[in-house]
Design goal:
InterPro entries: GH (IPR017853), Glyco_hydro_b (IPR013780), WD40/YVTN_repeat-like_dom_sf (IPR015943). By secondary structure, this protein is an alpha+beta fold. About 25% of the residues lie in helices and about 35% in strands. Among the domains are: about 200 residues, no CATH class; about 80 residues, no CATH class; about 260 residues, TIM Barrel; about 90 residues, Immunoglobulin-like (Sandwich), CATH 2.60.40.1180. The protein has an 8-stranded parallel beta sheet with strand order 43-42-41-40-39-46-45-44. Strands 4, 5, 6, 9, 10, 35 and 36 form a 7-stranded antiparallel beta sheet that branches. It has a 6-stranded antiparallel beta sheet with strand order 47-48-49-54-51-52. Strand 42, helix 17 and strand 43 form a beta-alpha-beta unit.
Length: about 950
């Protein structure tokens, strides 16, 4: 039989009646035609030879024209050159008529069909078997039908290309089965599994099923598909296969990976469903508006998938609409004061672009520019009005006085601007020459207006004290509602406030760390806020003629800020944490690093929390070439930094070239091999740190010369090894050398002392100031401590102590103890170490081969900033052999629990235990399961014996909105 074709549209009887009505009438007028069709109603498909055989066997006196009549009759759904398929509804009626004929005759029809299709596709013969079983329901047992369905379901869910082929046939035949057979759950599972294999949506199901039946059927054929996720400042980039350096999440699927993405900043916003096929990349930005309390805490949020061109916010105490968001497709979305959506104003297909969005203080009027024409929209009535004047940009402010309510219009077009308070005041700018406009601004009472032209010049109009004033190089402007105070920002970040009144004065608020994109001022003129495209909200408090700066940290990148009643603020921007949910219920939280700018820049950012895998000559015999060839497997294990060596510096002080093989231990090979290692490592996204053994060389010039040669060949850092102590002056010279290269790190020599005494052990006083990472051993605390059921207590305390004399941002580099111990204890020590602050320094063999599950922990540590960059606090637990510590980075909180006992233990955790408030969820980072977590209903955390678990606290539960 030929491959099934896509079904054609159903051809109804010419009279428009149903087949139940049509076929009896047709049987009276054309009895031979209907009888021939009855004899073929048990066939999966009717080939020309079968059609002729059936006519000659059961209607021997008919002519060949009967075959042609059936071929082109309404009883046929589709016909090709060689075969036809009966209409499903017609076939059902024909089979019922056939069942009423004498049983020997029907059996003869069945025998002919079996004989004709002995060589047909197995799934076609299976389909005909089920048609026959349904012909006499009283004699066919449910067990037989279930067995037949299970047989095909097993074939469809089998691995390999054969399952795809069977799935295509199954999707062709199963919808044509009688309703009595399609009611079975396995019949539905066959269709869903086949659709999933082929990347299609399942057909419509007309029968009630148990909850989760579709998801369970998909799971029969699904496998874990790796999807790469890169968190950007504006949202996410998802890719199949994962791009180099992306975080990898696992989504269940076959040809298509399905993921739902929802912003954690907006619990009521509906998720976005994405379907990724192979070799596809999707950029998913998120536009965010967040309301902040007087203290700067987030109290509300809205989010939209996709970019937002503009955001407008109503400033009144009581409003009809609080937020208006102009999306990338030019749709304007309106939100009420509580963040719920109040309506949408879609743009016509192929319509003109929209811009210059403004919202009146009471939220009852909206205005924008559409194709150069100003449009006003009344929210209560829905009335929309177009204004005749052509605008390049315009703002409309609705104000209310004692006697009337009206509009102030302020716009620019054709080189002129119009400030209309009902008096029609028209002014010309630059002699009528066209003037590009960067920004327009109007006070809430409509009495003060300003615009920033294309050259950055601010021009102010009204009140009289500011009429005609201007300022150069301005990027943002704002005022109080009554225009009694006006503030603006210059391109260099400086902010000035002009206070109007009896005590007129100009206040210099100082400079922001970036060019300000938006300003807002509180109603009383006491506070000024600014944003500049990153995660910081700057506030200046005006006190006694001076300004006091404050900084608030946001969870997204903000570019607009608005003043709200009662001292609150609304901030809009992009990005923020996003929750991904896969079809099988696994959840992942992706958080961009909004705190990157708050860290000291003295230490390269990539080394913060980096896990360093060590390959040592003598202990791990290797050559550079061998290591280069295995770099793909190294990276697959989650390793992104290798320390190799040791390397002995050159003997000659004036050598300009790279050391040759005589100065490099034989186990390492020559430098040509190292060049291939370096090239392969960087190609796979792995950094290389070279171990420098200083024991054999005492001349400072030789040490520095050798280091410079290695740095010139793009190694990513140097680690000082051996027992040689360097005094502070030498270390400072080494530090100055590395500072001449971008993003190179220096790992200090191994010290066995505790933080309080490590400085003296390391060398001269103040020597830590030269190092990015200060290396120390844990002195057996991980191993011995676990044996005595006092895991890591001293290690946790030590890990939290400051480095004292170290340079800003420096880290501890923790070494596992060298002495032998049981494999189970070593594995536990490694897992605990990966949850501690600083830089774990461990043998590559532990990460790559002996404990393959650790690679998952390496990826989680890299993906969750709390694990690599967060602080660390111990969580008291009820058992002496249970140990917990909480890692926090910004709003990201991760709980690490270690069980040093041999039995499974269960503990209960509340948000308050983790330093959070309100209802939340606890996400198991290892298996993706989610547990409710609140102060009233603690989350249950189960940890097996001699094991470690990591949990991410999700402080804002997601509430799916409409259409979720």
């Amino acid at each position: 039989m030929t491959q099934p074709e896509a079904p054609q549209a159903h051809l109804p009887p010419r009279s428009g009646r149903t087949m139940e009505e049509y076929i009896p009438g047709l049987a009276r007028s054309r009895p031979q035609l209907v009888r021939l069709a009855e004899c073929l109603s048990l066939a999966a498909g009717v080939e020309r030879p079968l059609l002729r055989r059936a006519r000659l066997r059961f209607l021997p006196r008919s002519s060949a024209g009967l075959e042609a009549e059936l071929w082109f009759s309404p009883l046929v759904e589709a016909a090709s050159e060689h075969s036809l398929v009966l209409d499903p509804a017609a076939a059902a009626v024909l089979r019922r008529r056939l069942a009423l004929r004498p049983r020997p005759f029907v059996q003869d029809v069945r025998d002919m069909m079996v004989e004709a299709h002995l060589g047909a596709q197995p799934v076609a013969r299976w389909f005909e078997d089920l048609l026959w079983a349904d012909l006499y329901p009283a004699t066919s047992t449910p067990e037989y039908i279930e067995e037949q369905l299970r047989r095909v379901l097993h074939a469809v869910t089998a691995t390999g290309d054969a399952g795809d082929e069977i799935g295509r046939w199954a999707l062709h035949y199963v919808p044509r089965l009688p309703s009595g057979v399609r009611r079975y759950d396995d019949a539905w599972r066959i269709q869903v599994a086949s659709s999933e294999r082929l990347g299609l949506a399942p057909p419509v199901d007309h029968f009630p099923r148990p909850p989760g039946a579709t998801a369970a059927a998909r799971a029969l054929v699904q496998r874990d598909i790796p999807v790469g996720v890169v968190a950007r400042s504006d949202g996410l980039v998802l890719s199949r296969p994962p791009v180099e350096g992306a975080r990898t999440v696992l989504a269940a699927g076959v040809r298509t990976a399905r993921v739902e993405a929802a912003s954690l900043l907006a619990p009521q916003s509906p998720p976005v469903r994405l379907e990724l096929v192979d070799d596809q990349s999707v950029h998913l930005p998120f536009a965010v508006v967040q309301r902040l309390s007087v203290s700067g805490e987030p109290v509300q949020g809205i989010a939209h998938a996709g970019a937002a061109y503009e955001v407008a916010v109503a400033a009144g105490a009581e409003v009809r609409v609080r937020y208006a968001v102009l999306l990338g497709d030019c749709t304007i979305v309106l939100h009420a004061d509580d963040g719920t959506e109040r309506g949408r104003l879609p743009s016509e297909d192929g319509g003109l672009p929209r811009k210059s969005l403004s919202l009146s203080a009471d939220g009852a009027a909206l205005a924008w520019i559409e194709g150069g024409t100003a449009i006003t929209y009344e929210v209560p009535s829905g009335r929309m009005e177009a204004h005749e004047r052509a605008w390049d940009a315009a703002l409309f402010v609705r104000f209310a006085s004692r006697h009337t309510t009206g509009f102030v219009q302020f716009g620019i077009g054709d080189g002129q601007f119009l400030l209309d308070r009902g008096r029609g005041l028209l002014r010309t700018v630059n002699g009528g020459e066209p003037t590009p406009v960067r920004a327009l601004w109007l006070s809430q009472d409509g009495e003060c207006a300003a615009f920033i032209d294309g050259s950055g010049v601010l021009r102010i109009y009204g009140p009289a004290e500011l009429e005609g004033a201007s300022a150069p190089d301005v990027t943002a402007v704002t005022s109080t509602a009554d225009a009694e105070s006006l503030a603006w920002a210059h391109a260099d970040g400086t902010v000035y406030v002009r206070v109007i009144g009896d005590d007129q004065r100009l206040v210099d608020c100082g400079a922001a760390p970036w060019q300000i994109t938006s300003l807002a001022m509180s109603e009383d003129g006491r506070w000024i806020t600014a944003v500049g495209g990153d995660s910081r909200l700057l506030l200046w408090e005006l006190v006694d003629g001076a300004s006091v700066p404050h900084v608030r940290r946001l969870n997204f990148c903000a570019d607009r800020v608005f003043a709200l009643p009662g001292g609150e603020w609304a901030v809009s921007g992009t990005g923020g944490p996003v929750e991904l949910t896969t079809d099988d219920g696994r959840q992942y939280v992706i958080t961009p690093d909004t705190e990157a700018l708050s860290h000291p820049v003295d230490v390269p950012g990539w080394i913060r929390g980096e896990v360093i895998a060590v390959v040592r000559a003598g202990r791990d015999p290797f050559t550079f070439v061998d290591l280069a060839e295995s770099m793909a497997s190294v990276r697959a294990a989650g390793v992104t930094c290798l320390a190799v060596g040791p390397i002995t510096p050159t003997v000659s002080g004036d050598v300009e070239g790279i050391p040759d093989g005589e100065e490099i231990p034989d186990s390492l090979g020559d430098f040509g091999g190292f060049a291939s290692l370096l090239m392969s490592a960087h190609h796979h996204g792995v950094r290389i740190v070279v171990d420098m053994d200083l024991r054999a060389v005492y001349a400072v010039g030789r040490i520095l010369n050798s280091m410079r040669q290695w740095l010139d060949h793009d190694v990513d850092g140097l680690r000082l090894v051996g027992d040689r102590r360097l005094d502070a002056d030498v270390l400072r010279d080494v530090r100055h050398l590395l500072d001449g290269y971008d993003d190179r790190v220096l790992l200090g020599p191994h010290t066995t002392g505790l933080p309080a005494t490590a400085d003296s052990d390391f060398g001269a006083t103040g020597a830590f100031a030269a190092c990015d990472v200060v290396v120390r051993a844990l002195e057996g605390e991980l191993i011995t401590g676990m044996t005595e059921d006092a895991l890591v207590r001293k290690s946790l305390v030590n890990a939290q102590l400051p480095l004292g004399a170290a340079r800003p941002g420096a880290l501890w580099g923790h070494l596992l103890p060298d002495y032998p111990t049981s494999p189970g204890r070593t594995a536990l020590a490694l897992r605990v170490l990966l949850g501690l602050p600083g830089c774990p320094i461990v043998p590559l063999s532990l990460l790559q081969s002996q404990y393959p599950e650790v690679s998952r922990m390496l990826e989680l540590r890299r993906d969750h900033l709390a694990l690599s960059r967060g602080d660390c606090h111990e969580l008291p637990l009820p058992r002496p052999y249970l140990h917990g510590f909480v890692r926090r980075h910004g709003d990201e909180i991760v709980l690490c629990v270690a069980n040093t006992g041999s039995d499974r233990e269960v503990v209960h955790v509340t948000p308050d235990d983790l330093g959070a408030t309100g209802d939340a969820r606890l996400l198991d980072l290892f298996d993706g399961t989610v547990t409710p977590c609140s102060d009233d209903i603690p989350a249950t955390v189960a940890v097996e014996g001699v094991a470690v678990r990591w949990y991410r606290l999700l402080p804002i539960p997601r509430t799916s909105g409409p259409g979720a």
